[in-house]
Design brief:
Bound molecules: copper (II) ion
Low-confidence stretches: 4-22
Shape: elongated
Number of strands: 19
CATH topology: Porin
Distance between the termini: 42 Å
């Protein structure tokens, strides 16, 4: 009896240590941290459905690496090249996104996916010196609807017992309405198009190639990913959003088969916009300025994942560590990404 108990104890203890030996890809760390995509493939015939929520919080302006108060942001625009923020300056913003992500394994090494996006964008502003509604008062604009639709194929180029190398041949379709107007800035007097960061999509077809290498260990997994977002040509408003390049590296630690935690470092480079929407005067507000869109951001990701009866819950908090922005822009303070997914 005692020998039996010891045996059971050993099996439990050993089981919790040496979990997952049989299948390293079915633990709580089977997907990358919540902020990333394109890191895994599915078996032939297998579907995955995911609901993903993201919110990005941006509070206060930044010129280069220097933080500016609302009054300083208005003053900055008086002498910047080009002159801007005469009508208003953004002061804070939340960029919320609901996403429906569907994946299907076609062969051992090819998985197709699509993602439908519903952004909801809210921006607070302070009125500038040339605003007919009076300088110094605040107003808020809001926009929401369908975003651009992501589609793509994941090609597993190499795989062995504990490695995956996956090429992402992705892109986005311009399904978002990019031209909407508002009367809020002038307190109802004039109708103006919403500026660039308030728009729901890029208006162009974008190529989004990327590549991910992932390695599984007994007690965790490591991954690195290079992912791009490259608009092709100009949209019908005669501009293109910036190119985006993301380099991510992460480690997920498996605490039990059903629970893991992760740390991630993200380098994000963005270029300025190309072309110009003919109705977006630079002098009005900094969010109309094409050359004030690029920059570099270093983010940290702290995440956790739980795998419960086949339901994967994945959450990540992403504080910004360092940001160097072209011209003047709202700084990104932090984001949260949470997802529920299930494969069947
Ligand atoms: Cu999936």
């Amino acid at each position: 009896m005692i020998r039996k108990l010891i045996l059971v104890g050993c099996v439990v203890a050993f089981g919790s240590q040496a979990f997952g030996h049989g299948d390293l890809r079915s633990r709580a760390d089977k997907h990358a941290p919540a902020g990333l995509m394109g890191d895994h493939v599915h078996e032939p015939g297998e579907w995955m459905v995911e609901y993903r929520y993201m919110n990005m919080y941006m509070d206060g302006n930044r010129a280069g690496t220097r933080r500016l108060s609302d009054a300083e942001s208005i003053a900055f625009g008086a002498t910047s090249d080009p002159v801007t923020n005469r009508g208003a300056s953004p002061s804070s913003m939340t960029h919320e996104m609901h996403m429906l992500h569907v994946m299907r394994g076609m062969t051992d090494d090819i998985t197709l996916y699509t993602m439908i996006m519903l952004p909801s964008i809210t921006m607070d502003h302070i009125r500038g010196p040339m605003n007919p509604a009076g300088a110094g008062s605040y107003f808020t604009t809001h926009n929401s609807g369908f975003g651009d639709t992501t589609i793509g194929a994941l090609l597993r180029l190499y795989s062995d017992a504990d490695d995956d190398l996956i090429l992402n041949l992705g892109g986005s379709l311009p399904t978002a309405d990019i031209f909407r107007t508002t009367r809020e800035p002038t307190g109802g007097m004039m109708e103006q198009p919403l500026p660039y960061p308030m728009r729901l999509g890029s208006g162009t077809f974008n190529a989004r190639p990327g590549i991910t290498w992932k390695r599984y260990f007994d007690h965790g997994s490591f991954g690195t990913q290079f992912q791009t977002d490259l608009p092709i040509g100009r949209n019908y408003r005669d501009y293109s959003v910036g190119d985006e390049f993301r380099l991510n590296t992460w480690y997920s630690h498996v605490l039990t088969d059903h629970f893991s935690t992760s740390l991630r470092i993200e380098n994000l480079w963005r270029t300025n916009y190309g072309g110009a929407d003919p109705i977006s005067p630079d002098a009005l507000i900094s969010t109309n300025v094409e050359s004030f869109r690029g920059g570099y951001t270093l983010n940290l990701g702290v995440g956790a994942a739980a795998l419960l009866n086949g339901h994967l819950l994945n959450v990540e908090i992403v504080p910004m560590l360092h940001q160097d922005l072209n011209g003047i822009q709202l700084e990104t303070d932090w984001s949260i990404v949470a997802s529920w997914s299930k494969s069947f």
